[in-house]
Structure formats: structure tokens, C-alpha cells
Write a structure and sequence with these properties.
Chain B: Belongs to the cytochrome c oxidase subunit 2 family. Chain B: Keywords: Copper, Electron transport, Membrane, Metal-binding, Transmembrane, Transmembrane helix, Transport. The complex is a heterodimer of chains A (557) and B (219). Helices cover 65% and strands 0% of the residues of chain A. By secondary structure, chain A is mostly helical. In chain A, helix 3 runs antiparallel to helix 4. The longest helix of chain A has 35 residues. Chain A starts with 17 loop residues before the first helix and ends with a helix. By secondary structure, chain B is an alpha+beta fold. In chain B, a hairpin with an 8-residue loop joins strand 2 and strand 3. The longest helix of chain B has 34 residues. The two termini of chain B are 22 Å apart. Classes of the chains: A mainly alpha (557), B alpha+beta (219). At the A-B interface, helix 3, helix 7, helix 10, helix 11 and helix 12 of A face helix 1, helix 2, strand 7 and strand 9 of B.
Amino acid sequence: MTTAQAPSGSKEVPAGNWLGWATSTDHKRIGLLTVATSLVLLLVMGVFALIMRGQLAQPELDLVLPHTYSQLFTLHGSGMIYLVITPFALGMGVYLVPLQIGAPAIAAPRTTLLGYWLYVCGAVLVLVSLAAANGSASSGWFSYPPLADSDFSPGVGPDLWIVGVVLSTTGMILMGWTVLWTALRKRTQGMTMLRMPVFTWSMVASCLMVIGSFPSLLAAMALLAAGRADPSVFHANAWNIGYQHLFWFYGHPVVYVMFFPYLGAVAEVLAVFSGRAFFGYKGTVLSLLVFAALSMSVWAHHMFATGQVANDYYSLTSISLLVPAGVEYFAMIGTVLGGRLVFRTPMLFALAFLPQFLIGGLTGIMVGTPVLDYHLTDSYFVVAHLHYVLFAGSAFGLFAAVYFWFPKATGVELGERLGRLHFVLLVIGTNLTFLPMFALGYEGMPRRVVSYAPFDGFSLLNLLASCGAAVLAAGMVVFVVNVLWTLRKRSLGRHVPAPPDPWGAGTLEWATSSPPPATNFTPEYPVPPVRGHAPLLTLREGQGEPDDRATLSGSRG
Amino acid sequence: MTTRQFFGTVFALESALAAFVFAVVAMLVCLAVVRRRAGARRRPSRRLEHTRPEAFYVAVLVAVAAFLVVYTARQNHDEHRAAAHGDPVEVTVTAFQWCWRFDYPQARKPLAVRADCRAGRRPTLVVPTGRPIRFKMASPDVIHSLWVPDLRYKRDIFPHHVNTVTLTVDREGRWIGRCGEFCGDRHHTMDFWLRAVSPAAYDKWLAQHAGAPAGGTPA
């Protein structure tokens, strides 16, 4: 690959023009659009969650009607998974993978752009479905038939929701393909597979799962659509349970698609702010691939309570996941144990990720054990578990990534003080919201209930969780203020421009300017020689060839 | 309760393991944060691999995973074997939007417990202690799930399919039962009572209510 290739179409686009942004085939613009769109949707889904936590703050409240509540948890769950965490993860890949492997552009940029627009159209349809006569989909994010068929969920809202889910998922499949293709085929000279950064590897593993499992969701949605046209489709147990198989064949791997890229981001952040290369690189790469392979064989652990799956087998595959997960933990802890730690905001989020996600992982072993799952499934224990995985884990990785790569993408660092305040509020809010839910589930509170009685004994813990949600909301407000304030400063020209490598990082995206030029690397910012998985670190430490150092310092001016 | 005992044993074991792992990781992270801050002027390590400890660690992980899989599968099988032992009482469970109906096919005359779950009218499922109870469960509409949180057990109830579960309740008492699978807007009101009585009291109850008029709510 040479830097001479310009990404097609990028030259005609005038900077700052919204149409230019909307039609750009520059992977950096598509990536930024994707992550920005998903962050806006994150706020919408957060508002839905706040309404639910308000409703549950006290027993027998009537803040919202039961049917409204059903739509809220359906849209919160499906929105967070289909429209926020997955798209953000793939958007990060679209932005970062070409830069990290020294490519001038993404493979098949128009396909990536199409993927973004499919995602946007899908998101619009999902939100618009709320305005339908009988409301939007209201049978939970996994929408099991026959509850989700047209007999039990009449109206056009659920149909719009299905089309929206199909469009955005198709967009994600397209993005997954182009990111994978880029990593496999567009690497710069010297960038062997085993020199790709940990984040790029986490994207490769994620994209393999996207390609392998996401079409199964399209099949499940097609089956559901058939059942909405003719509900008699679900007058047979085979189709009811068949839908669950198709759904979870997607629905479990997507958990790792929503987790790996954030794990990759955390790994990069931990290494950079420990001042060293990532420890245990090969073991981590191997464990990511093993994890991705195993992830395709665990889906039915969501169905232990159906009494219609081979519990022993799915328990075996699910519990086996602790081996690759343990290897990744070993590598991350090894990195910080041997490092020299600098506590900037990205590092704080990455460090908090370690114990918090661990709670999600360890309780995952519990729900992967049939004899425990019979009690815990579909209770608040599972709600707590999945929020520790996806919020205390992935969302902390997400914010570590935002604070870490923000200067690269925008040319200006986010405010450090507001960042720390955001971090503190998020740590308190996350644990105050989700920790009580373990106890609630253990004591017998089912998920997806709009209310509970005073004598159930759920009142105090629910109140605590709702207070935690308020703290979370305050933290998110701080984050929004930080982003808007920083961007405002930049547009007024009152900012300190970020250097190419503000953190002393190791991977190739930090060798080019902040933000990078259209072709990523130019004669002024050439791709440095690659002799390891943290090439800039190798150069700084003087372990490269004698002439390498000259290349690097020359490029910085 | 038999079921609860299996759940309790495994839950205690896995909680202890989880607490241990969490403590070790939290301690290591704290250690790194305290001792490895930039001010401590240590140079960051350049070491990229520690092959031998890593291999040893993987072996430990594999052993733990193997132990957990085998041990919990055995508990799961023992639980079901223990429950299936003896002469079972049969109860036919019908879960519908949004309440429950319990039929006792072994009663001399038809006996059904029913209610509509509105305004606190919950049906009471009466069972004897010490004898296995075989629940034959089906739904006329959508998927539900029979869950008695104090028994630590739930099982989904499908339309067009009969799920059978055998449980033993080994002490007298009354516990709330719920629907565990979201089944529509009034899912949260779909509760029942499970009342376990001595076998003698159970036989008496059965004789008293057999042939009760349809629509009645015995117990």
C-alpha cells in the first residue's frame, strides 16, 4: 500500500459543508458520523432509562402506563444494542483501523458510507415507530413470538421497528465487512498480522462475529415479519423455539461485538498510560480469536429455562469462555503492574473498567450454570449482570476511547477537570444503579415489570437504583457540556491545538497530524517503519534501526 | 426445600470463587495504582511476554472451568433425579394472559383452582410436602414462565407444547409465584400463591373441593 492513493471523492468535498460530510467517502468522516450519531442516540436511550427508573423508584407509582413502559424498555434495550453500542464500536473501527495499520483509506468506502446511511434510516424508523397508533414494539428487545406477532402486538409500530432493526443491522454487516477487509488487505509495509495493534485485532475478531452471526438476526426478523403477516406461522412450537435459536445465534455473539472493541480500546489506553507496549500481546490475540470462535456456540444458554435445549453442552461452552477472558485479564493486569502509570481521564476510565467489568464476567459464569440460571434468568439479576457487562464494562471502554482519541479526531483535547468529574459521577452512578439489582433479582424481582407491591420488599433497593440513575444522568450532562464547550472553544480558535501524539502513544494513528489529513499519511507525515505492535514506542526507545529515528523526528518537524 | 438446597450449594460455591477472583484482581489493580504511579520514578517494564507463568495460568483456568462444568452439571442432574423419585402428584398448569389455572387430574371429581389476578385475587396452588409434584404446563396464548422465587426455580411455559417439571417441597408454607417471562402489559400482575401443606391436609383439601362449581376459587 502506498500513500499516493487518495480516497475517492474526498477532493471535491469542501470542509465544513454538511452535504460534504453526508456524502464523504473518507473513512474518518464516516467513522465520526457513526460515533456522533450513536452518542446522540445514547442520550435518547438514557432518557428512556431515566423514565423507567423514575417509575420504579417507589412501589405502585403511576408515572407511565404499562403499555408505555413496555415500549420504553423495548426501545431502550433494542436501541442500546442495535443503535448505540454496536454502531459506536464499528464506527470506531471505521475511523481507527485504516489509521492503525497505515492505510490511506478504508476498503470499499462507498459500501461503508451506505452502511452508515442504512444505520441512520434504521434509527429514524425505530424512533418514528413510537408515533404509530398503537405505539412502537412492546415485547422486549428479543421480541419472542407469539407475543410479538400481529395477534398479540397489533399495529404498524412493531412493523416499523422490525424494518428499522433490519436496516441498521444490514448497515453494521456492511461496515463489518469493510473494516475486516481493510485489516486483512490494506496493511502498510512491515505491518504483519502479528504486528497489528490490539485494538485492530479486537475489531478483526468483532467483524468475524458480525459476519458470522448478524445475518441470523435478519433471518429472525424475517420470520417475525412473516408471523406478523400471518400469525398462524407461530401456531407451531417449532417456529416459536426456532425464532429463539435464530435470535440468540445473533444475540449472544453481539454481546462480544459490543465488548471486544471496547476491550481493545482499554488495552491501548492501559498500555499508553503505563508507558509501555501491551503485555502478553500474542496470548491476547489468540484469546480474542478463540473467544470469537467459541462465541458462536454458546447461544442457547439464554434458553436454559425453556426446557428444550441441551443444557450441559451450552453450559460447557459458556463456562469455557472464562479461559480466554482470563488470558485477556492477565495481559491487562500485567500491563499496569509493569508500567509507570499516568492518571489522565482515559486511564481512569480504563482502570475502572477492570474491576467493574469483572463483576459482569463473574456473574456471567453464574447465569451460565443451569442450576443457578433456572432462578436467575429473566430476573433483575440478569439485568444487573448485563448492565455490568455493557455499561460498567463497554460504556467505560467507550468513554476511555472518546477521551483518548478525541484530540486525534478533532485536534483538541477534552477538558481534564470536567472529564474527571464525569468519571467520578459515572463510577458512583453505575455501581449505585446496578449493584442493588443483583439483590433484587436474587430476592425474586422479575425483569420488565412496570411496578411492584410494597410487601414485595423491593422498595429500598429500587430507590437506591433510581438515585444512582440520577447520578449517572448528572455525569452524562457533564460529558455533554465538556464536548460542546471544547468544540465551541475550537470553533472560536481559543484552543490549544493537539500535537500528533499528545499522550506518548505507540500505534501508527499517532504518527500523523491531529486531525489526520485526507489520505491519513502524507510526505510530511509518512508512515513510520513498523517493527512491532507499538512502532512509535519502539522508535522512541531507540530499539529500531538507526535510520528509523530520523524518519520519525523528521516527520514531526 | 430440595431445589433450594442444590441452588444454595452451587450459588455459595460460585459466589466464593467469584469473590476470591474479584479480591485478587482488585488488589493487583490497587497495587499497581499505588506503587506504579509516575511519581514513583520506576521505569516501565519492557517485557512483552512471560511465557511460563502464562502457560501455568492458562492451565489453572482450564482446570477451574473443567471443575465448574462437571460439578454443576452433576448438581443439575442430581436435582432432577431426586425430584423424580417417588409417587408424584400431578398438577396441570395453564398460564394465560394474565393469570393462572391449576387442575388436579388425580382428584376424584374435576378440581380446578382459578382466579383473574385482578385486585389481589391470586389463585392458590395447594401441594403436599414431601411428595414429588409433577407440573404439566402449557399456555393457550403466549410464552409465560412459572417461577417461585423461594423455590429458586422457574420453567418456561409454551403454547403448542407441554413442558413437564417435577419438584419436591419439603416444608409447609406459603410463597409467592410469578410469571418469569414477559407476556404483555399486565405481566407484572400475573402472580399466584404456592401453599404447601402436610399430605394429610392435602388429601382433606382435595376431598373438600373436588367437584367445586366451575369458576370457584378453592383455598
